[in-house]
User: Which sequence fits this backbone?
């Protein structure tokens, strides 16, 4: 999970992120009935475990964000799932903090929600072969948007950070490619093995 | 990764930090972070770093594991700190051909580095020593929506289960002589691996959900709360609030 550590962002950015994050969370929690909690929790746990896997790319390796995939599998409920992943990272590993949580949530969840609304219904109706390409789009879009949101929240905080933020944005280019390819294969696999996992637009796992 | 996941879950209350209620620790972490963000003075930040190191020692965290985590800070922070002195406009410190670091940039980099490390230390001591169960319970008592808390606790419950599932699949891959390289075959395999984890977790969730319904799950968990609010918690929280207000007030005055 890409997150900004505590101590870099300025107060207006932090407050804006918190307000937007709470609004998104409130909206999506209303759309999560109590019966769907086990399904959401287990899928969120599976995605958390997957994001810890390191994938070799060239001479280095990356960890996946998987926010595009979260949007496709969980729909709008991806918002609380991402929040939980961020909280657990703070508790388990000491990364990220509670004040910057809002900004980090928005940076990851906004692309996920976009994938949930736009790409999920398309994949629901697509063939396994075609859903590879739609999954690729979702994964690439998720990483790309997160990269842009993350660097813009740094740039908005302090104009002195703009050159450094541009370099950070460059590191998202390989991540975007790998994220797209792997999400594509995952979505194609799910469409062949368990197509009922990817629901239409308003669907929930119950 | 499993070491990191499980090392934190067993905190049986031997260190001094465990006298504090989890709620106090969460609220103090937020307060100190908000305060540190508003401070720009190098002297106060250095003092805060020493204080945070003291708290970390009090929390009984091993020096090695703490340093390990600070060094492992996000790669992009390192980029940020290296680039800042050269891109910020201000008085040049010295000239080395095209390389001209400025005093202002160096100060900004130092301020950010101090803030990040101090806040990380405090978070490690205050939140990192809590078990996910304690966090869930504290959030519930702080009036966080019930279904969010349940989602957190259920995810925590199944992360270790799905980790075992993941380890099982990786062993099966190893038995078939899979070696992770930078090629399409590897990426396809990892894509299918993630897919397999999702499919299996989904099947398991149906069984769990049915079992819960059989036992009359009505949408709310019953909590057994071990933590109790003590006078010490009120004192700590009051002290933290007063210090924060003073420091924030001071930094907006100057």
Assistant:
């Amino acid at each position: 999970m890409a997150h900004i550590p505590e101590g870099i962002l300025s107060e207006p950015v932090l407050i804006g992120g918190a307000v937007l994050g709470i609004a998104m969370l409130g909206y999506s929690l209303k759309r999560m009935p109590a019966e769907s909690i086990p399904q959401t929790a287990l899928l969120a746990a599976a995605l958390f475990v997957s994001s810890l896997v390191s994938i070799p790319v060239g001479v280095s390796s990356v960890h996946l964000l998987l926010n595009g995939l979260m949007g496709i599998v969980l729909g709008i409920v991806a918002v609380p799932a991402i929040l939980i992943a961020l909280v657990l990272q703070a508790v388990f590993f000491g990364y990220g903090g509670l004040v910057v949580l809002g900004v980090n949530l928005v940076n990851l969840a906004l692309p996920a929600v976009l994938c949930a609304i736009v790409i999920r219904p398309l994949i629901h109706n697509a063939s396994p072969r075609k859903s590879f390409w739609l999954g690729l789009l979702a994964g690439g879009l998720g990483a790309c948007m997160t990269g842009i949101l993350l660097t813009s929240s740094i740039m908005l905080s302090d104009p002195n950070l703009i050159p450094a933020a541009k370099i950070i944005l460059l590191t998202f280019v390989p991540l975007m490619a790998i994220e797209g390819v792997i999400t594509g294969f995952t979505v194609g696999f799910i469409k062949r093995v368990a197509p009922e996992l990817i629901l239409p637009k308003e669907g929930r796992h119950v | 990764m499993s070491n990191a996941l499980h090392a934190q879950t067993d905190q049986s209350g031997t260190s001094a930090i465990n006298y504090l209620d989890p709620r106090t620790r969460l609220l103090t972490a937020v307060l100190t972070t908000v305060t540190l963000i508003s401070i720009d003075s190098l002297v106060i930040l250095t003092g805060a770093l020493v204080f945070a190191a003291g708290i970390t020692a009090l929390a009984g965290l091993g020096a090695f594991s703490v340093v390990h985590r600070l060094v492992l800070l996000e790669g992009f922070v390192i980029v940020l700190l290296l680039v800042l002195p050269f891109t910020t406009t201000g008085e040049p410190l010295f000239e080395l051909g095209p390389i001209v670091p400025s005093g202002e940039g160096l100060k900004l980099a130092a301020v950010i580095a101090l803030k990040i490390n101090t806040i990380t230390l405090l978070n490690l001591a205050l939140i990192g020593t809590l078990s996910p169960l304690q966090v869930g319970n504290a959030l519930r008592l702080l009036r966080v929506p019930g279904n969010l808390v349940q989602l957190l606790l259920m995810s925590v419950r199944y992360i270790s289960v799905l980790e075992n599932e993941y380890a099982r699949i990786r062993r099966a891959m190893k038995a078939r002589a899979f070696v992770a390289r930078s090629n399409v075959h590897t990426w396809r395999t990892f894509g299918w691996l993630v897919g397999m984890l999702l499919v299996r977790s989904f099947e398991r969730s149906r069984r769990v959900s049915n079992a819960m319904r059989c036992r009359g799950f009505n949408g709310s968990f019953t909590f057994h709360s071990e933590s109790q609010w003590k006078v010490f918690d009120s004192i700590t929280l009051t002290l933290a609030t007063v210090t924060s207000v003073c420091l924030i007030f001071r930094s907006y005055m100057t």
Notes: Chain B touches chain A through 85 residues (CB under 8 Å). Chain B has two domains: 21-130+227-253, 144-214.
